[in-house]
Amino acid sequence: MTDTRRRVKVYTLNEDRQWDDRGTGHVSSGYVERLKGMSLLVRAESDGESGSLLLESKINPNTAYQKQQDTLIVWSEAENYDLALSFQEKAGCDEIWEKICQVQGKDPSVDITQELVDESEEERFDDMSSPGLELPPCELGRLEELAELVASSLPSPLRREKLALAVENEGYIRKLLELFRQCEDLENADGLHHLYEIVKGIFLLNRTALFEVMFSEECIMDVIGCLEHDPVLGAAPRRHRDFLTKTARFKEVIPIGDPELRAKIHQTYRVQYIQDMVLPTPSVFEENMLSTLHSFIFFNKVEIVGMLQDDEKFLTDLFAQLTDEATDDDKRYELVNFLKEFCAFSQTLQPQNREAFFKTLSNMGILPALEVVLGMDDVQVRGAATDIFSYLVEYNPSMVREFVMQESQQNDDDILLINLIIEHMICDTDPELGGAVQLMGLLRTLVDPENMLATANKTEKTEFLSFFYKHCMHILSAPLLANTTDDKLSKDDFQTSQLLALILELLTFCVEHHTYHIKNYIINKDVLRRVLVLTASQHAFLALCALRFMRRIIGLKDEFYNRYIIRNFLFEPVVKAFLNNGARYNLMNSAIIEMFEYVRVEDVKSLTAHIVENYWKALEDVNYVQTFKGLKLRYEQQRERQDNPKLDSMRSILRNHRFRRDARTLDDDEEMWFNADEDELEDGEAVVPPSDNKTTKSSAGAGENEDLMDPISKFMERKKLKDSDEKEVLGKSSSLSGRQSPSFKLSFSGSTTKTSLSSPPPSASLHPGSPGSPGSPGSGAKGSPPTAVTTKGGLVGLVDYPDDDEEDEEDVSGESKEETPPLSKKSKLSS
């Protein structure tokens, strides 16, 4: 088996400062007679045991080896020859590292075997010893020497700085360009190749002063000429100058009178061309060296925008020609493209300058101009106008909203700017609806309440949404309503489905973020019923969009929506889609089940009852999830509460008492109970379970008798009971201190959280009419045990009922199924 610990890749650093892979093999260390010392040997793995030698390197005692990232060893063999071994496993790297450290007498725990002279210190020493860098004379015979000097200076920041100063001070660039022209005339290929390396190196010096010279009108084309002669291309240089002078044409859509502005535009275009097309793609090391070139282009664009923005005559002519009906289509297309590029340049501005830029365009009438352009038939012109509109919406949506609300007071709905946008979205001819997607995003930004302003005098949200739903919503929803007449799909092709999905996405956004506006529209126009027709589409993405729309509505838990859904039986198409999907486990199946599960978990009572009462037979056989059985259980629990409201109110009272912990607190509640009004007694009485069957029978008998009593007499009995208690409390105040005399007590189980009441001894049985019976006015006397409400089927005790505990619900439902009617009132706790 191959020893993977010793498996390595060998890398060497090339002249372009890129690592070249020299092959994969297995490394070993040993004494080499020819090198007279311990050496590292790597043999290619593809050639077996006696494979070719990829590397044979003597471990020099003075060479600095570095271990990096646990699996990499790097060192330099010569001034410009760097090597690296990349190990497959950390163990192999550690093993070879120990051999290297052993030869050099170093501790293997270090990551570098020799102390390197700090570069900044070395450069400082060089700086003191040699104050400047001397360039060779600018002659044809010295170009190779100069190219080597430039290449050797680039790795060191200090030497780069010295080289830049030398080139700048001696006017070296103009001399080099003169040599370039000579080399071209003489067809000196070697000289042209050296000049390519020199000029490329000057770019990497990253110095603005040098760029100012190189990009000047008289020098820039020669600089581009130097960069045409890449040695890699050999005798076939690129023809960049031919493209710039013959193919590329400067279109002046509006005459520019300022010569400085014209020169700046030409320069920026050419420098951008050098960056994008002429210079080779920078390596990782070189990328930061071109930062000044990026900055040069950036500030040029800022300057151009500022100069154009200040030229009022130029902008006035631009918008006048743009909106003039006499302007021919080609000219208008050029004008729109110029304005688009103008807005694209503005993205380089600082926020405050960008705000001033768009304010200037607004004052010049950019929105009315866009409205005119968007109404034209030319697809290319409309596309460019849409891009300009997107810049405006993304930067300042409030400005656009204010404009469309103002124009609505003067124009018809059909020609409003926002309705033009909606129409272009609906009428997009692209099969993939690329333009429609972009326009839908812009509409979404415009109707998003999150970016609407609220001032002291007016609320933009209220005003704009009222405007939108009055003037625009009918146009947005027109394709949806037109395609779902008679509760069936008129067209179900892919492009129509994509468009309807986009409209539904926007309507779903409105449901989430708008309140009564979208609610009124959906209910008045019966939009949800039309949307659910789309669940029958052959395109799953459209059916899912329809389900998502309904799910968002249900998620609001708004009873207006719920009543609308129930009244129109809008779960029917959902159930049909679920059944038509069959047993397939797909997104449609999951989305529908999740919708029903949400209704169950959130206990939306009206929808639960509607679903079970109307669709249970269709759904009862679905057993692979418990959602529908859970809905049925919820429904039965609701019915049980409705049939036995006193039991439900008693349960809620008992839940309120579940955390009683001391007798004193309970006694306070008793006092509050006795002071309560008649209405509160009806629903707020606690219950104590009896201790034996005799008590149960006695209580039940007493309850039946009490059902026959007149309500006025019961009230009088309670008054007597209260009076007798007050007298007893005054007469026996000494017995109240410990509260030990009542015959019941609270007990808590260590294993459960439920609270129970212990019963008195069996000997203290009750009889009708006794002081402890419900019919006796003296039921609150000391020593008399309490009674409990019972039914024939079982007891209801003072226990902890969870809110939605299914087991307790089933127990209670089991009791309620007994034929014994519930008692008309509950027994009172004795004091």
Automatic annotation (TrEMBL):
<feature type="compositionally biased region" description="Polar residues">
    <location>
        <begin position="732"/>
        <end position="742"/>
    </location>
</feature>
<feature type="region of interest" description="Disordered">
    <location>
        <begin position="679"/>
        <end position="831"/>
    </location>
</feature>
<dbReference type="InterPro" id="IPR000697">
    <property type="entry name" value="WH1/EVH1_dom"/>
</dbReference>
<comment type="similarity">
    <text>Belongs to the SMEK family.</text>
</comment>
<feature type="compositionally biased region" description="Basic and acidic residues">
    <location>
        <begin position="715"/>
        <end position="730"/>
    </location>
</feature>
<dbReference type="Pfam" id="PF04802">
    <property type="entry name" value="PP4R3"/>
</dbReference>
<dbReference type="InterPro" id="IPR011993">
    <property type="entry name" value="PH-like_dom_sf"/>
</dbReference>
<dbReference type="InterPro" id="IPR051137">
    <property type="entry name" value="PP4R3-like"/>
</dbReference>
<dbReference type="GO" id="GO:0005654">
    <property type="term" value="C:nucleoplasm"/>
</dbReference>
<feature type="compositionally biased region" description="Low complexity">
    <location>
        <begin position="743"/>
        <end position="770"/>
    </location>
</feature>
<feature type="domain" description="WH1">
    <location>
        <begin position="1"/>
        <end position="107"/>
    </location>
</feature>
<protein>
    <recommendedName>
        <fullName>Serine/threonine-protein phosphatase 4 regulatory subunit 3</fullName>
    </recommendedName>
</protein>
<dbReference type="GO" id="GO:0006974">
    <property type="term" value="P:DNA damage response"/>
</dbReference>
<dbReference type="InterPro" id="IPR055236">
    <property type="entry name" value="EVH1_PP4R3"/>
</dbReference>
<feature type="compositionally biased region" description="Acidic residues">
    <location>
        <begin position="801"/>
        <end position="813"/>
    </location>
</feature>
<dbReference type="GO" id="GO:0030289">
    <property type="term" value="C:protein phosphatase 4 complex"/>
</dbReference>
<dbReference type="InterPro" id="IPR006887">
    <property type="entry name" value="P4R3-like_central_dom"/>
</dbReference>
<dbReference type="InterPro" id="IPR016024">
    <property type="entry name" value="ARM-type_fold"/>
</dbReference>
<dbReference type="GO" id="GO:0072542">
    <property type="term" value="F:protein phosphatase activator activity"/>
</dbReference>
<dbReference type="Pfam" id="PF22972">
    <property type="entry name" value="EVH1_PP4R3"/>
</dbReference>
<comment type="function">
    <text>Regulatory subunit of serine/threonine-protein phosphatase 4.</text>
</comment>
